[in-house]
Amino acid sequence: MRKVYFDHNATTPVHPEVAAAVQPFLGDLFGNPSSIHWAGRDVRKAVEDARGEIASFYGCRPLEVVFTSSGTEADNLGVKGVAYRPGNAGKHIVTSRVEHPAIMNTCRFLETQGFRVTYVPVNRQGIVEPDAVRSAITKDTILVSVMAANNETGCIMPIEEIGAIARGAGVLMHTDAVQSTGKVPISWETLPVDLLAFSGHKVNGVKGAGGLLVRKGIELSPVLHGGHQERGRRGGTENVAGIVAMGKAFSVLSKSMGAEVAEVRRLRDAFERALYDRIPDLVLNGHPTLRLPNTVNLSFRFVEGEALLLNLDMMGIACSSGSACTSGSLEASPILMAMGADPIDSQGALRFSLGRGNTDEDVEYAVDAIGTVVNKLRAMSPLYHPREAI
Ligand code: PLP
Question: What is the CA(378)–ligand 1 centre distance, in A?
């Protein structure tokens, strides 16, 4: 059976150059990067080279890169690191209603610790409006955290404008750039953002390594207390293989991101067009243009997303539904609900996210399979009345 992987926003395959770069660190290069003897020195150099590659990709200083175990930990460090630092003027945080759980649940936790959080809404197309952030900021606000792009819909947020508003108010700005990294250009030098989270496994690195960019001069309270690694900002022996992998993945991105993004966009657009041509009653969840070049989230009306997902899996197609199965009942994705989407339609929502390695043949096969399964499921649905039959 053909296998088609259209779930790159969940994770990406390891790039062959990344796999090769990691090999020596599973063998002879086993030292602890904090050791000053021979076994540690080469490993320290590899960690610092990786830091340099990541810094050069974003256009920041190597010292501004703090390695973490994941995008989730980087988000935790960004938000809690600001919340708990001494001398804050207030206890209020502004974020959005469509953040990844790494931010959402961190903010919810902070609410139990005496912080106040405002969750600003998004518009019908899933975009956070800068004015909503502006009006949420009070004199008590210490941090604005808005994602650079949403993982479910691919919506690209106006981070420059939101960052400028935060700066104007003297408030720090964090952005979760886990999904936008490698898909849209980011220039740290001109971006009015103080903290930026990324993750290796979303850019063809390996799972379990991420990082936070921390603008020079900003003090954070560590979340992991331990040794002096990462200049005291994150204790714990570094995940050397994961960091080396991330360094290589970013160096590959620096060389080939433009061409790869253009190709993925071409395939995504062809996929999306072919679905609209073939299948009636589709609803796009997200913005038509302010959207990651690899992502399309569609509601297949009169079909249950989970049923569609399972049927597609049986045909070798990997994609994702935002709905969570809670105690046997399917709940529509909170992200789509925050956008004001129809709750019934949202039950039939699927996210397709393309990436490196996908081909025209993948698109053709997937469109065919989706068309077939949707027809089959609709034929069984008591709710479905084809337009021509009405
Ligand atoms: N933020 C966003 C927007 C994500 O999509 C993800 C992963 O899906 C994360 C954070 C968490 O990253 P990690 O899987 O490295 O913890």
Answer: 33
Catalytic residue status for 325:
yes
CA-151 nearest atom, ligand 1? 5
Q: Which two tokens stand for residue 230?
A: 């990462």
What is the mean pLDDT of the segment spanning 235-244?
A: 98
Pocket test for ligand 1, best of 7, 69, 72 (most atoms within 8 A of CB): 72
Instruction: Give the burial string for 87-121 (b: 16+ CB within 10 Å, else e).
Output: ebeeebbbbbbbbbebbbebbeebeeeebebbbbe
| pLDDT for position 384 | 84
Question: Best substitution site from 107, 178, 203 to test ligand 1's pocket, by max atoms within 8 Å of Cβ?
Answer: 178
CA distance 234 to 226: 7
Q: What is the pLDDT of residues 117-174, one digit of tens each?
A: 999 999 999 999 999 999 999 999 999 999 999 999 999 999 999 999 999 999 999 9
* CB 107 within 8 Å of CB 83: no
- Percentage of the chain with pLDDT > 90? 93
**E-state strands within the chain:** 4-5, 65-68, 92-96, 116-120, 141-145, 172-176, 195-199, 210-214, 282-284, 295-300, 317-318, 324-326, 329-331, 349-353
Question: What pairing do the DSSP bridges indicate for beta strands 65-68 and 210-214?
Answer: antiparallel
Mean pLDDT of the chain: 95
* pLDDT at 279 > cutoff 60: yes
